[in-house]
Amino acid sequence: MSQIKPSVFHRIASALAAWRRQRQDLRQMMSMSDAELRDLGIGRGQIPALLETAPSSSAAWHAATRPVARARRMPLDRKTA
């Protein structure tokens, strides 16, 4: 029997949490009045598409915690006049 890596469980839990957040956001936005949605500049029919294309908070977290590549130091080209 092969062992399942903990990262598989993490991915499943993250996907489930993202799905729950998306459903909660959908319910919240659908409960808004047409005037409130108009103030945001969106129509009621646009809500599902906006939520599908919205970046997830976990994606922002992963981007924020990704190691930053070190910039190469380039020699300055100093010319004396």
Strand content: under 5%
Ranges with pLDDT <50 over ≥5 residues? none
Q: Radius of gyration over alpha carbons? A: 22 Å
Mean of pLDDT: 76
Distance between the termini: 74 Å
Q: Based on CA inertia axes, which overall geometry fits?
A: flat
Structural class of the secondary structure composition?
A: mainly alpha
How much helicity do the residues have? 55-70%
For the largest beta-sheet, the strand count, sense and barrel status come to:
none
Please count the beta strands (DSSP E, at least 2 residues each).
0
Please trace the helix and strand order, writing H or E for each element: HHHH
Quickly count the helices.
4
What does this 3D model show about the protein?
With 81 residues, the protein is mainly alpha-helical. It has a domain at 19-62. The chain is built from 4 helices and no strands. The protein has helices at 6-30, 34-40, 47-53, 57-65. Helix 1 packs antiparallel against helix 3. The longest helix has 25 residues, at 6-30. The chain starts with 5 loop residues before the first helix and ends in a 16-residue tail after the last helix. The model has no long low-confidence stretch (mean pLDDT 76).
Task: Annotate the secondary structure layout.
Blueprint: H1 6-30, H2 34-40, H3 47-53, H4 57-65
Helix pairs in contact: 1-3
What are its keywords?
81 residues; mainly alpha; 59% helix; 0% strand; flat
What's the gist of this structure?
This protein is an all-alpha fold and 81 residues long. It has helices at 6-30, 34-40, 47-53, 57-65.
